[in-house]
Amino acid sequence: MSDQFSAWQLILNGDAALFAIVRLSLAVSLSAVALAAMIGMPLGALIALTRFPGRSVLVVLLNAMMGLPPVVVGLAVYLLLSRSGPLGSMGILFTPTAMIIAQTILIVPIIAALTRQTIEDLWAEYRDELTAMDVSRTGRMATLLWDARFSLLTALLAGFGRAAAEVGAVMIVGGNIDGFTRTMTTAVALETSKGNLPLAMGLGLVLVAIVLAINAAAWGTRIWSERQAG
Amino acid sequence: MRATVSDLPLVLDGVSLQVGATTILAGLSLSITPGAPTLIVGPNGSGKTSLLRLMMGLAAPTAGRVSWGGRTGSKPVRRAILFQRPVMLRRTAAANVAYALSQAGTPRNERAGRAAALLERVGLSDLGQRPARKLSGGEQQRLALARALARDPEILLLDEPTASLDPAATRGVEEIVLMAAQSGIKIVMASHDLGQVRRLAGEVMFMVRGSLRERAAAADFLDRPSTPEATAFLRGDLVI
Questions:
Q1: CATH number for the B2-88+151-235 domain, one of 3.40.50.300, 3.40.710.10, 2.40.40.20, 3.40.640.10?
Q2: Which long-range contacts (CB under 8 A, 24 or more apart) does B45-49 make?
Q3: pLDDT < 50 regions, chain A
Q4: Class of domain A2-229
Q5: What is the nearest CA distance from A148 to chain B, expressed in angstroms?
Q6: Which chain A residues touch B91 with a CB distance below 8 Å?
Q7: Which terminal Cβ of chain A has fewer Cβ within 10 Å, N or C?
Q8: What's the pLDDT band for B1 if we cut at 50, 70, 90?
């Protein structure tokens, strides 16, 4: 009981350390979603509209990669960025940049796979009309991505949910450095193991509340804009 | 550039379409030139839709060849098609027309003006800012006509565009089609509605089981059909 009480107190008092952690977590995960969307959506649309040998293998692979274990991605990025790794000279291991890179790699497959499915379904509906209008391949991709915008919001949310919830990748490539690379999830893990349950619970509550709020906002936006655009 | 390229005459030379073991179209040879509206009639499954898809270039024949203005395998330049159930883009009505204009190569600064003119031409001026998918079936079909006309076609193919519309909406669509025909656009339209054939047709192509059984001036076909199948069809019998 008293632990829960202290957790609420931390939130209500606007504990500075807590909010720094929340801010960093959101900055990292939202940047990763934005980057992954820029890569994953065109990639998904391209796969949806192109027929080539080995396509089914690629689609299966992409779907399977939605379940990439974060620690494995973290390890791979760690090896790339560590001092002796191929990109070691950049010196970005244990920085928020490295965390964004790892989370981007983690969620590109999610956004690309969900986009591929959505665009392929919409293409079945639009094929005749767009062919009759002689729309170019890039034009088709752009048209389908735009017209699927409401459904694609779900893909973004899935990506954000994954990024906001994972511990393994950010822990390995960020290092959980206090005040620099500590996120909500890594802090919860650390504080729990230290026995500082109030802070762990406060962070846990905030994390759940944020994910809930973002999903509610996205849902509302979708309902509203679908009503506008049909 | 577009003025020098023509999609007419549209010529089918020994065209067949086979899907698996089924023959959809069997050895069609015909030519479409400018003139009064041509209506394609025949029972369901006689190949009307497939014929229109071949004429549009949406499907390729398994034998024979289709050519537009002497070119084969040509991209749609001056031709457009209206489907029985048009697919509206998830945008406003005006944006749907503007999209078709942009695909037809209309410069950006002319699109809004021309879209407004086209919407007026199909009687949708007041609904330009409405989401296209919220329009009624008849309004959607008229919007699809505006989109097709945005391509400045010489030939407009229509696949039973009024099949699921009520009489008032059907009249709205027919008026636009007649207006397009009067402005010199060649109309080729599939229909199963003999009243519509009477109202619109200059000539009739009668199809049974994937082949062209009769091609004649509309009045001749309706009053003096020359094949027993056409006689039976006009009498209202099932032609199998």
A1: 3.40.50.300
A2: B45/B209, B46/B207, B46/B208, B46/B209, B46/B210, B47/B17, B47/B207, B47/B209, B47/B210, B47/B211, B48/B159, B48/B160, B48/B190, B48/B207, B49/B84, B49/B159, B49/B160, B49/B190
A3: 1
A4: mainly alpha
A5: 8
A6: 147, 229
A7: N
A8: very low
Domain ranges, ordered by start, for chain A = 2-229
Q: What is the per-residue pLDDT for B160?
A: 95
Tokens coding A222? 């979708």
DSSP lists the bridge partners of residue B232 as none
Q: What is the pLDDT of residues B148-194, one digit of tens each?
A: 999 999 999 999 999 989 999 999 999 999 999 999 999 999 998 99
Nearest-neighbour CA in chain A from B160: distance (Å): 16
- The average confidence (pLDDT) of chain B is 94
Ramachandran quadrant class, B77 (left: phi over 0; alpha: psi -120 to 50; beta: rest): alpha
Q: How many Å apart are CA A115 and CA B100, to the nearest integer?
A: 25
Distance between CA atoms of A87 and B222, rounded to whole angstroms?
A: 80
The domains of chain B are located at 2-88+151-235
ipTM confidence: 0.91
